[in-house]
Design the sequence.
């Protein structure tokens, strides 16, 4: 820490003596970003954005943090340039317009002009990734970090390519490395947390989501994903508070409505659960999952007719949905048609069910099978008598 403070003091003194010293400004901005002082770094880079290297670092920061408006203003202000940096500017602009082929072409021209310019490889990777070519994208990101090992955005993008290729633990390492380089890298915090949650590391994921909430209190995804982890950890009150905050920020998110509705049902607040599920349907009328959840709430309250109506409405939208077929079987079981329920359940592969419905499938199967066994035993007894 003392070394960082000494360097910062030295570079600030040099800038005070020569405010146009772009090389020193770039070094200081990189130090500030690596120390988590993002706002100070960005303010400094904006003062020196007329320098190509400082502008490049600012461009990469805006892209990494998904700050499209700021990025567009920077690109418009910088104007045209025939260098590799200028070609990448054009590639980024093409990417923003949705011209992925144009972005690739300009990145390749930039690489031809300067094969050691890491952003050209990174942005070629971004274009390839968005063209659903994750393997060559991965190779481009690897090349970018080989050229520039401290290139946080390229490490972050490499994490995307690895995750897309189901190399989840490697993706975790790539996102983690991006964060070590940039402790306040909000996009990396989010994606590392999501990957860790997928690996079952919910406590570690929560730590990242909470850090992101501190850095960006208005980040819906931070609150939403924290709620998911707290829900899975059975911290239901904390999850409820996180979902509440996320809904305040994004009330029209149907996925959030579904998850919060499920939580309210677990807390025995079936009226609130139904309200969330119905709102999810309003926002996404083709949501088979919402009809499944509505059917479950009604079935739990023994409102079998209402559960059946929900199942039929859902099946009209998604005839082969495994969750709806499960609830159809459950309705048959509740009506006492054990043989029909078992027949319907046998047609469902539990692997096709969402994780939270797999245990429900097992319980419905055990109940229906036990009822069928009793029915068969009673029938045999009656025939013998």
Sequence:
């Amino acid at each position: 820490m003392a070394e960082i403070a000494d360097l910062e003091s030295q570079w600030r003194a040099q800038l005070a003596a020569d405010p146009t010293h772009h090389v020193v400004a770039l070094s200081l901005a990189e130090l500030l970003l690596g120390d988590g002082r993002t706002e100070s770094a960005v303010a400094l880079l904006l003062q020196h954005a007329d320098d190509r290297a400082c502008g490049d670092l600012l461009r990469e920061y805006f892209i990494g943090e998904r700050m499209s408006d700021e990025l567009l203003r920077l690109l418009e202000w910088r104007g045209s340039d025939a260098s590799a940096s200028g070609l990448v500017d054009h590639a980024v602009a093409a990417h923003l317009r949705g011209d992925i082929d144009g972005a690739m072409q300009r990145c390749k021209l930039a690489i031809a002009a300067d094969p050691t310019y890491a952003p050209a490889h990174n942005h070629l990777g971004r274009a390839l990734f968005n063209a659903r070519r994750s393997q060559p994208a991965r190779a481009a990101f690897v090349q970018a970090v080989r050229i520039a090992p401290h290139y946080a955005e390229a490490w972050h993008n490499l994490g995307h390519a690895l995750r897309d290729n189901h190399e989840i633990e490697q993706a975790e390492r790539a996102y983690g490395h991006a964060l070590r380089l940039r402790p306040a890298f909000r996009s990396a915090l989010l994606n590392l947390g999501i990957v860790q949650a997928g690996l079952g590391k919910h406590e570690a994921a929560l730590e990242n989501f909470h850090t992101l909430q501190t850095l960006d209190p208005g980040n819906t995804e931070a609150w939403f994903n924290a709620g998911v982890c707290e829900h899975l950890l059975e911290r239901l009150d904390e999850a409820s508070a996180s979902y509440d905050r996320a809904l305040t920020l994004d009330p029209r998110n149907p996925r959030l409505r579904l998850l919060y509705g499920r939580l309210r049902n677990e807390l025995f607040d079936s009226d609130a659960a139904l309200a969330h599920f119905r709102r999810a349907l309003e926002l996404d009328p083709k949501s088979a999952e919402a009809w499944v959840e509505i059917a479950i709430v009604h079935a739990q309250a023994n409102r079998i007719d209402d559960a059946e109506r929900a199942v039929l409405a859902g099946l009209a939208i998604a005839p082969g949905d495994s969750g709806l077929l499960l609830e159809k079987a459950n309705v048959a079981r509740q009506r006492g048609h054990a043989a029909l329920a078992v027949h319907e359940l046998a047609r469902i592969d539990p692997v096709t069910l969402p994780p939270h419905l797999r245990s429900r499938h097992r319980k419905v199967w055990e109940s229906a099978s036990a009822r069928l066994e009793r029915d068969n035993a009673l029938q045999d007894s009656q025939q013998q008598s």
Remarks:
- The CA atoms of residues 60 and 304 lie 56 Å apart.
- The chain has a mean pLDDT of 93.
- The chain is about 80% helix and 0% strand.
- The first helix runs from residue 2 to 17.
